[in-house]
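S.,

Sequence below, as promised.
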Amino acid sequence: MTTNTSSPSIARRSRTLAVVALGGLAALTLSACGGLSESIEERNDGHTKTYAFDTGKEGKADEVVPTWVPDDAATVPGIFRTTGTERLLTYRGDLDGLPADCTTVSAENPLIAQPEREGFTAEDYRTDATLLATWWPEGQETASTVMCGKWWISADGEDVYAFTPELTRVEIEKQPTPAGK
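The prediction came back faster than expected:
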């Protein structure tokens, strides 16, 4: 009877190569996040972060701005809660550049939360904005006329506003100062 002593060393080498490959991938991923971390600013008043980009194209390149925002959208600030699902953003532009899969709000397609995670329903979400931003008019989310996935979108002149609802189970912390533009 002979024993094969090379199998354990081959298995060990394979595990070592896998660990090295994963480590390299992690290092590459972390180094690629430089642009993202430079674009997002943590606020000192709760679990919120803000961002601002000159164009929609820049924000999408950093994977911060939703893909439906037109590349030529100008002045794109936003705020989001790190502990929940609510997002607010605005940009200078119009609704003409929205993708074809965005739908107009109507009696057949009402303005309701669109859960992206299994186990949630529209009733698990608030319908009013709880984040504060100097550029977000109070109640603007209820003026939404278009939905792009989970985003509720409205326009007022050359300003486009977008909102995603917050889960009711998320604690809303006090925000003493609204995010600026």
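The beta strands are 40-42, 48-55, 74-81, 87-92, 103-104, 146-148, 151-156, 159-164.

Coffee later?
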